Hints:
Layout: E1 11-15, H1 18-21, H2 44-48, H3 71-85, E2 89-93, H4 96-99, H5 110-125, E3 129-135, H6 141-147, H7 154-169, E4 176-180, H8 190-194, H9 204-229, E5 234-240, E6 244-246, H10 251-273, H11 280-287, H12 297-300, E7 307-311, E8 316-318, H13 352-366, E9 370-374, H14 392-410, E10 415-418, E11 441-443, E12 455-457, H15 459-469
Helix pairs in contact: 3-5, 7-9, 13-14
Protein name: Aryl-phospho-beta-D-glucosidase BglH
Keywords: Glycosidase, Hydrolase
GO molecular function, one term: 6-phospho-beta-glucosidase activity
Amino acid sequence: xxxxxxxxxxxxxxxxxxxxxxxxxxxxGKGLTTVDMIPYGQNRMPIKLGQVDKVxxxxxxxxxxxxxxxxxxxxxxxxxxxxxxxxxxxxxSIAWSRIFPNGDELEPNQAGIDFYxxxxxxxxxxGIEPLVTLCHFDVPMHLVNEYGSWRNRKMISFFSNYAKTxxxxxxxxxxxWLTFNExxxxxxxxxxxAGLLFQEGENHDQVKYQAAHHQLVASALVTKMAHKxxxxxxxxxxxxxGNFYPYSCKxxxxxxxxxxxxxxxxxxxxxxxxxYPSYTKKVFAQKGIQLETNQEDFEIxxxxxxxxxxxxxxxxxxxxxxxxxxxxxxxxxxxxxNPHLPASDWGWVIDPIGLRITxxxxxxxxxxxxxxxxxGLGAKDELDENGNINDDYRIDYLRQHIIAxxxxxxxxxxxxxxxxxGCIDLVAASTGEMSKRYGFIYVDRDDLGNGSLKRxxxxxxxxxxxxxxxNGSVLG
Length: 476
């Protein structure tokens, strides 16, 4: 498909996160983090959603993050495979508790500093630019237990100290930074998104939006800091993207879709524009929210991001009649099933045109460059009799989305790059499963942690290599 040539400086690559890939959860002085407390199985979702008032580890349960795919010990092997595909960028995250095991120390853990420096140097050995997320769904548990996590204003200074350490230590090695991964997810999944637990009788919305305010101020402070430390730094925000479609053309459904989109875009409105949007006044009044702020907060928020990064897996559907019985449990962001779209094995609708719509919406709204930092198909992969994985379904999904991505660029939307999610199979954030695979590289590990951890390139590995070699013009 020669009509899909991309700009010569387009950043092709892939994405993983520390909490889903590194394992070695206490190695090198690392402290416990929120995801280390989230088990596989029936208790996973209540903890992720903050539906318990205290989180402890249970010896009878399996915690996938503790071993994950052992990227901590195998990063050289893994980065070499990514280089073989021709990656130009590799999105990773830093585990806060590797750098500051408790989160509130004044001095960092040298072993953690050294680990990530080695990872970034290994990337540069192959000409791969790291794209680094500072907080990807992992808050040090000490900060949860001692301070209540992001509900507490002290988190701003803790995070700023952590970020300053990373920005200083990795100056010259990293120039693309993201502050918070899928920042809007804290509304739907408060513990996994922001380390939030609730006490009986609390106004959950008050706690969540107060935490959001603290994160937004922290993000703006870090953005300012990053530009001061190194003028080459580019800082982005990160949205769990996907527009809400009205379920019907009924005006009430259209209004509901608008409201649901605003709920997600609120965070990016602040990070990109530098102020709270006018619609929040009514929303906060309806939800009984009274934010505790400092006057200087609103000056700090004026330090806006350089680009908008986002994930896109699926579009969503909204109706004025949405309720718990007619919305899908497939994702923490609730949606009515769209009858016009097919779905993955996990119930996520497949909607390439929705990516084009989302990209146009974001650029129309913000006029800042976009970066698609997560996209992919979670599917069950099986080895054939020759030990190969013929994942044509994944190739088809990615091909359709790359075409839609190119169509949006033809519409006039600037896109910096594309990093499909879970380029190496990893632990699924939603379910804790390994069987929900996204990668170009198969990892021999099952849902209960059994397996050799051997890496096996899939058919999609060789396909994506050709996509990158041709700069997107060969998608067959």
